[in-house]
Write a structure and sequence with these properties.
alpha/beta, 2 domains, binds adenosine-5'-triphosphate, binds magnesium ion
Length: 325
């Protein structure tokens, strides 16, 4: 589908989504809401069993929500199923998305026909997509001889045959080697940036999410625990908790070391460098000022003070462990 700037509806609008599977104590997904615009990539993150796949399946119209709604370019995936499906391409976790005894090329022609893509358009698009995912040289080989990574790339190509506006990818780089994962990553970024697709992907690879996602939604036990632009999420976390490293310019006397350890039990002291360095996580600037003043009073010289930026993984761990009910 063409996308144009006059479109006012977001590409994807998920509102108050809930799924209560029969005989389960807790809903698998509860009160999940978010929207996504053209060209934006959202990473849906959460520990095992958090509700990611259930959410993706509800967006794809494959699991019926117990409550709430999903609209894709304004169309309800349940009420206006056919129209909505034209806008959605999905590659689901562990699903057999391909026919093993057919070649890559035949698979694309088959799935394109299922999606009612006109034959001439289909051939051209299939060619283009094979190039996009780097499988053109293998297009006549049977898919059963493909590696896991090649199958995954072909599954993504197949999901794009009808030129959907919204692409849903459940763990697209699972089990892929570094090279294959990079191709998938580049392809996904390209689809959002250059072709204006809205993309929702789930992953357990925080570094991948940090590199590709414009927005992060963290789900834990079915509920939202964070929803923000990736940069904002990291910045906010960094405001409240920073890892600071103080390198010293002389060795510590044993009394100085004992004093430090007693006053700052959370301080980690490493002697890896020429002289010791102190690492601690601080929640406010005052803590750092106190530490520096302590060092100053004790006559301990400071060489450098550096902040280490939090990674998405740190934020994720902090959001999904401990305190939540
Ligand atoms: N068909 C089903 N019937 C009953 N319960 C289910 C069904 N599918 C999933 N669940 C439950 O719903 C919860 C969420 O599962 P879901 O597959 O959505 O998690 P996930 O975030 O995708 O996890 P993972 O990271 O392991 O893929 C889990 O407690 C799971 O056991
Ligand atoms: Mg899953």
């Amino acid at each position: 589908m063409e996308h144009s700037s006059v479109d006012t509806a977001p590409y994807l609008a998920v509102r108050n989504l809930r799924k209560q599977y029969p005989k389960q104590a807790q809903p698998a997904v509860d009160e999940v809401s978010f929207t996504l615009a053209s060209g934006r990539l959202l990473a849906l993150l959460g520990p095992n069993g958090a509700g990611k796949t259930t959410t993706i399946k509800m967006i794809a119209g494959l699991v019926l929500p117990s409550f709430g709604e999903v609209r894709v370019l304004g169309q309800d995936v349940i009420q206006q199923r056919q129209a909505a499906m034209r806008h959605i391409g999905a590659v689901l976790e562990g699903a057999r998305n391909l026919y093993w005894r057919l070649s890559a090329w035949e698979n694309l022609l088959y799935f394109g026909a299922v999606r009612l893509v006109p034959p001439r358009v289909l051939r051209q698009r299939a060619e283009e997509l094979l190039h996009l995912v780097g499988l053109h040289d293998d297009k006549d080989r049977e898919v059963r001889h493909f590696s896991r990574g090649m199958q995954q790339k072909l599954a993504i190509a197949a999901a794009l045959l009808h030129d959907p506006d919204l692409l849903l990818l459940d763990e697209p780089t699972l089990e892929l080697d570094v090279e294959a994962a990079r191709v998938v990553e580049k392809t996904v970024i390209n689809l959002a940036r250059e072709r204006g697709k809205a993309i929702v992907l789930t992953t357990h690879q925080m570094d991948l999410a940090e590199r590709v996602a414009d927005e992060i939604f963290v789900i834990h036990r079915g509920r939202q625990v964070a929803y923000a632009e990736t940069n904002q999420l990291l910045q906010e976390y960094n405001l409240h908790r920073q890892t600071v490293q103080v390198s010293l310019c002389a060795p510590l006397a044993s009394q100085q070391l004992a004093d430090l350890q007693q006053t700052y039990p959370a301080l980690s002291i490493s002697g890896n460098g020429r002289f010791p360095s102190l690492t601690c996580t601080i929640d406010e600037q005052a803590t750092l000022v106190q530490l520096l003043a302590h060092l100053d009073r004790a006559g301990i010289g400071i060489e450098t003070v550096s902040y280490q930026r939090a990674r998405l993984e740190d934020v994720f761990v902090s959001l999904t462990t401990g305190a939540q009910p």
